[in-house]
């Protein structure tokens, strides 16, 4: 995958804005899943009888933009990695950063959570007895083992596809030149506010068509093979990955996407408030319209988020770097903690808003402590849970900061 160089200035070393958007949304995922404990539409999350419709609005609102943004970022950084690494190095990097944490959490925290769900549903086996039971087999055969990790499961074949394109599509081929020329052209035609609004509509049309085509395949909603996930879930977010790829291939297209537009905050707020969703009760034509409106709302919020972070987080800094480092741990660990803490809160009679706040803050704080004092301090934990091998570098930076605090006169003059 090549990049466009004729239409823009040289790239920065790090995209703090995009990394910051990904990181903040990882933290928002804690509130999203904490909301499921109290949402009437999600009664299967713990046995808590304290429910309020606000949490339905909250979690469905978060669902509009959190995961789609992750897929955009996944496609964007996949291209950047492939532009800097050989295909083999790229695959090894993705195996470490995606595959290793996926397997680690699937066999540890996800199994703990799924066992607790089994017990809460009336299961009588102890943990050892549960392993090999019909429920345990169904968990693995149905793909339920992944829980919130389905995002990583979907990313892996997308990474493989990107690697195959990089490996087998010749440099200088028509396909590669078109892959850059099309987003370069879109960058020009969608630059004005009116044209950008039309572009949003076209993105929504493309997503709607993707859903309709995917739905025609037999077994669309069944696992592609036992233990994996459905074709529907695999391809539903693919357009966001593709646009992320296009943004990385064409800096001018990325600049058009992240350009601040004064009307976008209002459009995103309206989309978040209305939250259009299609339901089985709607007629075919109205359901199709609502599907389109849903995709339009998603793209509006996703692109507003990118514009917001580009406007206010472009410079990065130590806090942004820390946030980015903690983000994967937050994503991996929080789900089980939300269930465990939410399970405990079933037995207390606090106001629902207080319970939700305690659950959200408690789960996030626990992850931060684990990340700081386990994941960032021990080689094996860093590898298994973050897919990194940079503990020595972290220790050197920690020692340098300690020395600067102890001997400030030795710090470099500004």
Automatic annotation (TrEMBL):
Query: Is this entry keyworded Glycosyltransferase?
Result: no
Q: Which Pfam families match?
A: Acyl_transf_3 (PF01757)
A single GO molecular-function term is: acyltransferase activity, transferring groups other than amino-acyl groups
Q: Could you tell me the superkingdom of the organism this chain comes from?
A: Bacteria
**Keyword terms, alphabetized:** Acyltransferase, Membrane, Transferase, Transmembrane, Transmembrane helix
| Spans traversing the lipid bilayer | 21-39, 59-83, 95-119, 139-164, 185-205, 238-258, 285-309, 321-341, 353-375
Describe the location of the Acyltransferase domain by residue ranges: 16-369
Is Electron transport there in the keyword field? no
Q: Which PANTHER family match?
A: BLR4337 PROTEIN, MDO-LIKE PROTEIN
What is this protein's name? Acyltransferase family protein
């Amino acid at each position: 995958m090549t990049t466009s160089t004729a239409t823009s200035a040289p790239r920065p070393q790090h995209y703090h804005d995009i990394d910051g958007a990904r990181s903040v949304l990882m933290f928002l995922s804690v509130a999203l899943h904490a909301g499921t404990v109290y949402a009437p539409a999600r009664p299967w999350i713990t046995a808590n009888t304290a429910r309020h419709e606000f949490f339905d609005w909250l979690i469905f609102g978060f669902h509009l933009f959190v995961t789609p943004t992750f897929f955009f970022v996944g496609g964007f950084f996949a291209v950047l990695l492939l532009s800097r690494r050989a295909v083999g190095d790229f695959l090894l990097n993705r195996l470490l950063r995606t595959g290793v944490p996926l397997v680690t959490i699937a066999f540890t925290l996800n199994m703990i959570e799924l066992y607790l769900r089994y017990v809460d549903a009336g299961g009588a086996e102890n943990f050892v007895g549960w392993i090999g039971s019909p429920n345990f087999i169904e968990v693995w055969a149905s793909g339920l083992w992944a829980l919130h990790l389905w995002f990583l499961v979907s990313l892996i074949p997308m990474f493989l596809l990107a690697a195959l394109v990089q490996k087998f599509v010749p440099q200088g081929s028509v396909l590669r030149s078109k892959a850059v020329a099309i987003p370069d052209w879109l960058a020009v035609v969608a630059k004005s506010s009116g044209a950008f609004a039309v572009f949003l509509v076209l993105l929504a049309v493309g997503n709607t068509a993707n859903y309709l085509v995917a739905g025609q395949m037999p077994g669309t909603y069944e696992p592609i093979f036992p233990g994996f996930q459905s074709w529907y879930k695999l391809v539903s977010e693919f357009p966001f990955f593709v646009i992320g790829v296009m943004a990385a291939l064409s800096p001018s297209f990325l600049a058009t996407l992240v350009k601040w537009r004064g009307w976008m905050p209002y459009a995103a707020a309206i989309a978040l408030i209305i939250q259009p969703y299609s339901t089985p009760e709607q007629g075919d034509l109205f359901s199709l319209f609502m599907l389109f409106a849903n995709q339009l709302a998603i793209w509006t919020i996703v692109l507003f988020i990118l514009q917001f972070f580009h406007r206010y987080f472009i410079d990065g800094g130590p806090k942004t770097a820390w946030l980015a480092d903690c983000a994967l741990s937050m994503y991996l660990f929080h789900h089980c903690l939300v269930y465990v803490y939410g399970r405990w809160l079933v037995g207390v009679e606090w106001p629902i808003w207080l319970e939700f706040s305690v659950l959200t803050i408690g789960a996030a704080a626990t992850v931060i402590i684990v990340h700081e004092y386990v994941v960032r301090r021990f080689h094996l934990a860093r590898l298994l849970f973050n897919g990194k091998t940079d503990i020595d570098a972290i220790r050197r930076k920690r020692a340098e900061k300690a020395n600067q605090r102890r001997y400030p006169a030795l710090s470099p003059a500004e």
